[in-house]
């Protein structure tokens, strides 16, 4: 039975509220809860007087940016439960002394407050110094070896026993889903899955501490201070270093900056494994508007694995 959601505030007109879907009503109710908890923590518990409050929706968090005592802070509330904060705390235990990790001000089971990190993301206009700084930061993080695989459980131990346990069941299911969505590409999808398993069985790259969800928007660089900050540590865990590096394969990253990064990164990566991770992420998190991303990732993997097979996705079939 569908249960109606009560309006979170009386100033929302009835007709506007009723026109929302149940999922939109639930999300708006969540936003109001976030503001209520912000008031409870920031104003009541900490006794701060926040100013210039701005709300943003990230992939995994609702973020309220605000000023207090001439400093900027971020109030983060996880979308998917307190396990996100638990993973952040485990990452902080290992990395909070590193210069690329934001200063933590407050954390409880529902939210966290950290200092605001100035700078620009690694977009196409990012200065070359950002890629040098990122390479140096990852050198520090990736030197921490780990065991197990996946999100942090205790210390530098991953939650799963192996990369097989972590990815193989999900990939098997998602490849079948894609074959249903693109039946005329079933042969190519079977081919990429066969090569994917071939690479899975031959991985030799060591396991280490990784960010786990590194991409351009999770890296901030302040060119005035030459300071780099890595944010959003919800996926921090034990993986192969190539999981943190595969975003550099994107055409959005200028070739000169890629070269500069790898000149300052201490270890030669497994390029096939970088491409393998790129395919893995594009398959597992495929969305209808990202068909071209999947095609690019798969075909690059085919090239790395020395095969003439190619995937061709017709956007009209999505």
TrEMBL record:
In the record, what terms sit under GO molecular function? transferase activity
UniProt domain Aminoglycoside phosphotransferase: residue ranges: 54-265
- Superkingdom of this entry's organism? Bacteria
- Database matches in InterPro entries: AGP_Transferase, Aminoglycoside_PTrfase, Kinase-like_dom_sf
Q: Does the keyword Transferase apply?
A: yes
Q: Which ranges of the sequence are coiled-coil? A: none
Q: Which UniProt keywords apply?
A: Transferase
- PANTHER family (alphabetical): AMINOGLYCOSIDE PHOSPHOTRANSFERASE-RELATED-RELATED (PTHR21310)
Spell out the protein name for this chain: Aminoglycoside phosphotransferase family protein
> What taxonomic lineage is listed for the species of origin?
Bacteria, Pseudomonadati, Pseudomonadota, Gammaproteobacteria, Oceanospirillales
